[in-house]
Amino acid sequence: MDQDVMRWVQRAQGGDEAAFGELMKHYQGRVYGLAYGMVRNTADAEELTQQAWVRAWQKLGTFKHDAQFFTWIYRIASNLCLDHLRRRQRRPEDPLNEALEPPTFAELPPSPSATVAPDEALRQREVRDAFDRALATLKPEHALALRLREVDGLSYEEIAHATGSRVGTVMSRLFYARKKLIEQMRSDT
Amino acid sequence: MNCRGAQRALNLRHDGQLMAADGEALGAHLAICPDCQTFAVRMEQVGSQLREEPVPEGPTPEAAWASVQRAIRLAEDGAARRPAWDVGPWLRWASAAALILVVAGGGLLWHGGVAPRETAAGPLALHATQVLRVTTGLEGASTMVYEDEAAGWMVVWVIPAEGGNHAQM
Ligand SMILES: [Zn+2]
């Protein structure tokens, strides 16, 4: 698959839009997942994902082949998400906690909790809500590093590349993000 | 190793980055510290909560690609249509201000739905959401100047009698 990605990138850099389409379709789910995880809103996540791919097409000439394409597109998407969150935090009429509301049941795909006893499903839902609230208190840069590590399984070096920071900064962000979440979980239970 | 050092070591261990020697010291601390044992368990829970977090289904890759293609076209069309004299926001504002002065100096007639507000700066002081429609010296043409709040752009329309041509600054 890496070979395919390299071929698509090379062809897309030569102006082949169909090859860029293959690239986009290959990474679309991961980029959308990252955007949704950051902004917690399907419409904004779709919009930001689209913006990321348009920007990627426009800046494709600057992509160097010694880097990995997915950390490059992650960097574009991450920057857009962070900008979006900063703008949202600056808007007083749009409170952060409203914007960070977890999705409604209707928005969510069927999960294992749908097949367990109602009491257990409720408990799982409460744990998840508490976790979402705790997550919303993290600095966006810290939440981003944590997500890239835990959900996407990126190495410290890959996170550093995807976020434009140093490895030491990544380690520090991961530590403080986890510590804060653990402390919040303690106070919630 | 104290609790703070143990928590940092746990962070590294969780990511598979802890040196063997530090691992021994961490093990010794964990054996005697219930707080750090709990911290270790919670750290695993944080990871699994994040990984198990449900993500609502997004558009299919094909639908997403179709939208991206449309957006790319739109961006390219916009770039191609941008006039050569589009020289950045400051000059856009300066040009718009100059146009207003020219229009004001010409003593032209107002018409249309929105009347200008009289202010100390004169009858043509522009407000962010105010729409001004004035006739120009050009036969059969009129000009409309306003700020597009969403885009933050100063927009100048030159409308011929038949309507149609316009320039956006
Ligand atoms: Zn301890």
Compact overview of the structure:
Chain A has 189 residues and is an all-alpha fold. Chain A has helices at residues 2-13, 17-39, 42-59, 69-90, 96-99, 118-136, 140-150, 156-163, 167-188. Chain B folds into two domains: 3-51, no CATH class; 89-168, no CATH class.
Ligand set: zinc ion
Tell me the CATH superfamily of the largest domain in chain A. Answer: RNA polymerase sigma factor, region 2, helix turn helix motif
Order of helices and strands of chain A: HHHHHHHHH
Q: List the quaternary state of the chains.
A: heterodimer
Order of strands, main sheet of chain B, comes to: 1-2-3
Separate helix tally of chain A = 9
Instruction: Summarize the amount of helix of chain A as a percent range.
Output: over 70%
Which chain pair shows the most residues in contact? A-B, 44 and 33 residues
Instruction: Kindly provide the radius of gyration of chain B, computed on alpha-carbon positions and rounded to a whole number of angstroms.
Output: 32 Å
The count of domains of chain A is 2
Can you give a write-up of this model?
The complex is a heterodimer of chains A (189) and B (169). Chain A is an all-alpha fold and 189 residues long. Chain A has two domains: 1-102, RNA polymerase sigma factor, region 2, helix turn helix motif (Rna Polymerase Sigma Factor, Chain: A, Orthogonal Bundle), CATH 1.10.1740; 103-189, Arc Repressor Mutant, subunit A. Chain A is built from nine helices and no strands. Chain A has helices at residues 2-13, 17-39, 42-59, 69-90, 96-99, 118-136, 140-150, 156-163, 167-188. The termini of chain A are far apart. The model of chain A is unreliable at 95-110 (pLDDT under 50). Chain B has five helices and three strands, in the order H-H-H-H-H-E-E-E. Chain B has helices at 3-14, 20-32, 34-52, 61-81, 89-105; strands spanning 132-135, 142-148, 153-159. The radius of gyration of chain B is 32 Å and the shape is elongated. Mean pLDDT of chain B is 70; it is low at 107-136 and 161-169. Helices cover 49% and strands 11% of the residues of chain B. Chain B folds into two domains: 3-51, no CATH class; 89-168, no CATH class. Chain B is mainly alpha-helical and 169 residues long. The termini of chain B are far apart. The interface between A and B is large, with 44 and 33 residues. The structure holds zinc ion (ZN). Zinc ion binds next to helix 1 and helix 3 of chain B. Residues 3, 6, 29, 33, 35-36 of chain B line the site of zinc ion.
